[in-house]
């Protein structure tokens, strides 16, 4: 039976393996004086996602083994929930915004919309989100000397 606790992490592991192959094909820039190349961060993120997904698959397998021993049945959950559909739509919209507005403005808007969607009322969370986005922008641009995407509009 298709179970989202097994299916989606397995899919991430397979996509991660394909991504590692694609990332290995990135050109090595000869003009950039950076401490890391263009493949470093995508590789780190992909490997982290694959490790986390492997842990999730292992946990699901352990839970199934424990449930079999105890003869308990877990309630079947739907493959797609409203929250998962929102998450996919959110990520697609965020990627589109990055293309249009660039990383900085798209991330500020996306973080704010995320907090608004979940009805977060504490202003401190909005401030933390803005500081985080600007810090990442500064870290990549000034410390790692890696340009984050500029939008086609701004």
TrEMBL record:
It comes from the Bacteria. The chain crosses the membrane at residues 7-26, 38-58, 79-96, 102-118, 125-148. Residues 11-149 form the DUF1468 domain. InterPro entries: DUF1468. Pfam families: TctB. Keywords: Membrane, Transmembrane, Transmembrane helix. This is Tripartite tricarboxylate transporter TctB family protein. It comes from Photobacterium rosenbergii.
